[in-house]
Amino acid sequence: MAIYNPDRGSAWNYGGGKWRLSRSKIDLFVSCPRCFYLDNKLGTKRPPGYPFNLNIAVDTLLKKEFDIHRKAQTPHPLMKENGIDAIPFQHADIDLWRDNFKGAQYKHEPTGLVVSGAVDDIWVKPNGELIIADYKATSKNDEVNLDADWQDGYKRQMEVYQWLFRRNGFKVSDTAYFVYVNGRTDVDTFDGKLEFDIKVLPYTGSDEWVEPKLFEIKECLESDAIPKPSSTCEYCPYREVAGKKLQRLFLECKVIKREDVPESDASKESPTKTLF
Ligand code: SF4
Question: Are 199 and 180 spatial neighbours (Cβ–Cβ below 8 Å)?
Answer without folding.
Answer: yes
